[in-house]
Amino acid sequence: MATPKEEIDRQHGEAKRLLSTMPNLGPPEIGEISLSYKVAPLESLQTKAGAVKEAWGNIGDSNDDGSNDDGGNDDGSNDGNSKEPLMSIDEIPCTSTRGIVDMTKLKSLVRAGHDTPITKSPAKPTMWDEAMASKENVLVTRRSHDAWGIKKIVLMFCDDFIQTIYEMPWWYDEASGFKEAVRGILETLGLGGEGGEKRICRMLLASMPPDMTIPFHHDTGEWVNKTHRVHVPVITDHTKVLFRCGGGSEGQMKRVKCDEGRVFEMNNQAKHAVSNHWDSYRVHLILDYVDEGFKVNERVRLGKGEELVQTRRSIDRKKDYGKRETPSYLIIGAQKAGTTSMYEYINQHPLSVKGRRRETHFFDWRWQDNLKTKKEQKEFYDKFFFANELKQCPSCLTGDSTPSYLLHSDIVIPRVKDVCPWVKLIVMLRNPIDRALSHYRMVTSDDGTDAQKKIRGMAWRGLTFEQVIEMEMVEMEKKGLMGEDAGEQEFLIMKMEDMKAVGVQKAVEKAFKHLGLPDYKVQDEGAKNSRAYDGMNEETREKLKEFYARWDEKLFGLLGWAGWDGDGISIGGERL
Ligand SMILES: Nc1ncnc2c1ncn2[C@@H]1O[C@H](COP(=O)(O)OS(=O)(=O)O)[C@@H](OP(=O)(O)O)[C@H]1O
């Protein structure tokens, strides 16, 4: 199998060949490419005609009035009969010429230094030099990409979720000349004036070295299907630079004529690649903008000399390093109430990072009495997380999920308040009758390692469920089932039954909101840590029902719940 370098060399050679054989045409002028064509990477749809239909629905076949006659059901649903897809991959619009604009001003603004090899210090610093950008503008670094030697001048940038749009001094300070130089481009795109400019979330100039290929790929990240991607060749030779875009595989890409001043939009969910066989650096302006009405949380003007650091998942201001403490959240229980699932679901979010271990038990059986100060305790606790790495990614969070904390909440909560008062708590609850059986089945099960069995406890092994509950009811009666008010700590309390009733996605969205994470669609909704086992007899169920009744009543009164059935009613009576 070819190494990545060999594969890039292959594509570079192939591109050179295609430069003389592939038609070099400007994309059709079909106007703005609707974001509805960007619902998924084209690659993921190309093998399944049905999936194309599902994703693109009736877009390609709608009548002028927006209705369609495809024989779909009246309620808009589709009965899944084997109808042909309404659009094939080739028909999905991937490139569009939006206009041709004079590049004279922009070209003269950025020409100086665009073609100085990155390894050489320029005779006179220019806007392409990091030294100049880090003094006069904002340096945006992405370690993995910067190694390719592509130079950039960044005017606007945003995070992957388009929560914050950063404006750079060379953009908002009109004296830099950029606003004036790109005016024609923005007007062509319908982005002129203040309202239009506010829809732009990324704008940069990129200078690509000669004899280089960016292999075919599609863009990924939450921003992709929320934005229109525009390229404008500024300094180039369209006969020597091969830019291809379209479809879901290498062979489906079509050549885009990249002549200077052609403002073209591309569907960056489609495969695209570029090879520079020119003997000079190639400069493109690259711009992403959102549809009208898209809500952005904030636009922030960054000061001269600031630095933005980008990783695959995050974008952070260097001056915010260390701003977020670890961990940000604790899932404190209850045992067997879906805590593993909740932890795994949260960690599917691109801005969430798993700890070194899921159940730290730091606040219960790993508690270190010998550590006398909060600082010492925190330093010890941080060893369970990627605390140092996360200092440089304050937009990302991490957490601890130790379900036994709830059982020992009288000891745990004061410790939590002392060591990390900022953490947000998540409590998963479950009908105590079903929870009890699940717990019993786990403890008495033969699966797992010896160490796991030891941690689960040996006391119930060899006893029937009925014998165990008799013992436990006496204990619970003595201890009581509800602890003290935890005071100011921020709680999210959910019942596991809701994950079934309203669906995992809705339940997890509640957790994302609680943690201040932007919405995200979880990819894997499967139940974790589940076990198949026989149920309990009716008599035992009735006995437990009676035992728990007064505690249930107290809990429901406190949380505004009607019962244990999944009804989607969250704490305070709010519906999920
Ligand atoms: N999404 C979803 N829907 C329904 N049920 C779910 C879901 N996720 C987890 N579960 C059930 O939760 C039980 C495991 O809970 P925990 O992970 O908290 O267990 S543990 O305390 O960490 O051992 C375990 O219950 P049992 O199978 O009855 O043992 C899981 O099946």
Automatic annotation (TrEMBL):
Annotated source species: Triparma retinervis
Disordered: region residues: 1-25, 56-88
Family designation: Belongs to the aspartyl/asparaginyl beta-hydroxylase family.
GO terms assigned for molecular function: sulfotransferase activity
Binding site for 3'-phosphoadenylyl sulfate: 430, 438
Database matches in InterPro entries: Asp/Arg/Pro-Hydrxlase (IPR007803), IPNS-like_sf (IPR027443), NST/OST (IPR037359), P-loop_NTPase (IPR027417), Sulfotransferase_dom (IPR000863)
Coiled coil spans: none
Domain Aspartyl/asparaginy/proline hydroxylase: 198-290
Keywords carried by this UniProt record: Glycoprotein, Transferase
Protein name per Swiss-Prot or TrEMBL: Sulfotransferase domain-containing protein
